[in-house]
Amino acid sequence: MKKLIVIMLCFGFSALNVVQAQTDQDVIKSIYNNSLTQGKSYDWLNYLSNQIGGRLSGSVNAQQAVEWTKEEMEKLGFDKVWLQPVMVPKWVRGGKEYAYIESSSGKSTTVNICALGSSVATPSLGIKAPVVEVKTFDDLARIGKDSIAGKIVFFNRPMNPKFIETFNAYSDANDQRTKGAREASKYGAVGVIVRSLNLRLDDFPHTGNMSYGDLPDNQKIPAAAISTNDAELLSTMLSLDKDLKFYFKQNCRQLDDVQSYNVVGQITGSEFPNEYIVVGGHLDSWDLADGSHDDGAGCMQSMDVLRLLKISGIKPKHSIRVVLFMNEENGLRGGTKYAELAKQNNEKHIFALESDSGGFTPRGFSFDCTDEQFEKIIAWKPLFKPYLIHYFEQGHSGADVGRLKNGTTVLAGLSPDSQRYFDYHHAANDTFDAVDKRELELGAATMASMVYLIDKYGTN
Amino acid sequence: MKKLIVIMLCFGFSALNVVQAQTDQDVIKSIYNNSLTQGKSYDWLNYLSNQIGGRLSGSVNAQQAVEWTKEEMEKLGFDKVWLQPVMVPKWVRGGKEYAYIESSSGKSTTVNICALGSSVATPSLGIKAPVVEVKTFDDLARIGKDSIAGKIVFFNRPMNPKFIETFNAYSDANDQRTKGAREASKYGAVGVIVRSLNLRLDDFPHTGNMSYGDLPDNQKIPAAAISTNDAELLSTMLSLDKDLKFYFKQNCRQLDDVQSYNVVGQITGSEFPNEYIVVGGHLDSWDLADGSHDDGAGCMQSMDVLRLLKISGIKPKHSIRVVLFMNEENGLRGGTKYAELAKQNNEKHIFALESDSGGFTPRGFSFDCTDEQFEKIIAWKPLFKPYLIHYFEQGHSGADVGRLKNGTTVLAGLSPDSQRYFDYHHAANDTFDAVDKRELELGAATMASMVYLIDKYGTN
């Protein structure tokens, strides 16, 4: 007994002190300090972006990213790292697109376009046709089939700058991109050109997925995005010369589905190993750039969340998983597969957090949960004040974790500052140099801190 | 009477409705909408940065900026626009600096340096000397005169990444730059090289002002900043070869003071024309770049505050002034002069707001005021929530408006997101392309909204 007391005096008391001293404030401070001084997200992103590059689903790069992230997670000593097989669509861009405006006097001006994801190609010699400019699908109905048939429909409704959160401006404008071709085809259009979803005026065309819905193959018309500067140019030229023609050529193709994978790493929980907390982003990207913000940033942050918990000495009660979802951009097959398997295996998920809004300064979170759950979570808000995290709102979570929605799992999305996101989104300038190290690291720390609290206190 | 009623029915009621409908929420929404759809700050900044450029006090560019901003304000139809003469120091960099590290085996490696503002030149052939690396002034005392005399002191204490607000990391590190030469000289050093105040590792040396205090001329030693990458290199090389030498050459000179100006524009108040609200930034910049963030942004935002109030139909009760202060960087003469004249002319200032922390997404304000005043102001915080403005704290206001401090005037600084500021601060990359249009415009709207509320409700 005396010996025990001596041992306690030597070791026990100090251990006790450590435990007592580790308030939530202290733990969160240590998570932020660790991210800002020894974070890995930025170095990893450098590798992913500059050594692997763009990672369109089904591409060699996407497969390399799967293998590399799995290896990195194994090196981190997680309890379990594995791949979840999932078949993904494979769309390829082919050669670079080409387009010009031809005035009725025959003078031509080249413009910057790119095929929209999932679009069909033009005929091999391209398409040249007169242009009808519209802002909405109602415009199509108003103008009518007689005036649209045989022409290229030019969707030119700018993102609305009045929205403070730019994702709202995106939602408000993206029907042109996602459904423009489908709608224009019904009026006999031969192609569509869509103003890039970019709040800035510049020369980058922004790709992104589109869908023909249930349109039969022979009614699928090619769809391309045009840079905002060139959209302005085309509109101005049209107002002066309504008989001008637009030419474009693209060689994209939809191939057969191919095998790919979600990458999953896990720290197994000490008390509730069969209850899961997920943190993730999507590993695929578009092909025009290396996808540093969309969503290399979210993937690398998510990997670092587990590492930050480890190096901050946190032993989670629940099993914490990082999931790098495949194919968010043009299919959402990875998110769908993960949710399917979770259900099939009866895995109880208490929380799933996605980072897919760019690696910018974190402002907070958006939660998809019940009012009671939100009330519990919002009580933690003061813990985040020193880190200038103030945005706790109920709303959308994220496309991939959204597949886990079941009324009990709390779903959430990291909400970074959104002002610059659409400057880069799906365009050739979404590259590593557009990411700031501290902003990325603050995001990882913010995510890790929320995971720490959820793990400690639960969601109900 | 009947006629009056008819007139009221025709005009009065609608006018009444407008007035009633114009809640503070509505007015603030219209200010933000106007800034985001027809703001001028970004176009102006393009002109100031790309047509005029860097504006070091006493330079031709600084004078051009004075003339151009005065003209622009006159075009805006302010009630009064004038120049406030102020004598400013004129320091010139001369030819580009040159520096290398010479190993004891004679191999040399060039590195990126720039003279610190107000520094003396090296002798015309430069200085070559052994190097003593230190982190603090205490290190100097510990190492002692015998080991320092005849050497170059290399201050290499990095900005501390653990500070969430980077301005705190700046305050924590900048004694090396401002007082390093003065302190090292006391130990017989022949020059100082200071690690750039930059949280990032890159190749840009960051200038900024230093002072010799009351050191006699013959004890003034030249001081230069070295890029963070080269500071790391020098430190590593020193650890391997403590006998290496450092060579640098700079040709800067302090000339006689020259005439310059603050630029002031005013909308005269309808009820309290002799009570003033000031909004401003500093028009001078360092010379290595065009000073887009520091502080072209703040100047252009401040000019647009008055314009936004006008186009949003707000007729202020107090006189609102935009003041573009001259010489914040190396003398603060403009701010001092403005305060001097305000006192001399018995001008009652109720509020002065400065934007001098970069054109990044606004997060809120820092207020230097009494607790009672702060209590009144913080009650308006909910009005800013839709614009994701949440930071209302008591603290520092700004260097220029700080000169107005008298215990009754509320002083404030706009607090933008600070994560990227020191990537650009005083370096060759502080250029127009580093400024985001929306972030700049949101800042101008946030400032205008606060000015609107202060004007309407006062500060007491």
SSE topology:
The structure is a homodimer of 460-residue chains.
Chain A: H1 2-21, H2 24-38, H3 41-52, H4 60-75, E1 80-92, E2 98-102, E3 108-110, E4 113-115, E5 127-134, H5 137-143, H6 145-148, E6 152-155, H7 166-173, H8 175-185, E7 191-195, E8 223-226, H9 228-240, E9 245-249, E10 253-267, E11 272-282, H10 292-311, E12 318-325, H11 333-344, E13 348-354, E14 362-368, H12 371-378, H13 381-384, E15 391-394, E16 410-416, H14 421-424, H15 437-457
Parallel strand pairs in A: 5-6, 6-7, 7-8, 11-12, 11-13, 13-16, 14-15
Antiparallel strand pairs in A: 1-10, 2-3, 2-9, 4-8, 5-9, 10-12, 14-16
Q: Tell the overall outline of chain A.
A: elongated
Q: Counting H and I runs of at least 4 residues, what is the number of helices of chain A?
A: 15
Provide the CATH topology of the largest domain in chain A: Aminopeptidase
- Global mean pLDDT of chain A: 95
Task: State the fourth-level CATH superfamily of the largest domain in chain A.
Answer: Zn peptidases
The radius of gyration computed from the alpha-carbon positions of chain A, rounded to a whole number of angstroms, is 25 Å
Number of strands of chain A: 16
Broad CATH class of the largest domain in chain A: Alpha Beta
Main location (chains A, B): endoplasmic reticulum
Pfam families (chains A, B): PA, Peptidase_M28
Protein name (chains A, B): Carboxypeptidase Q
Domain Peptidase M28 (chains A, B): 262-449
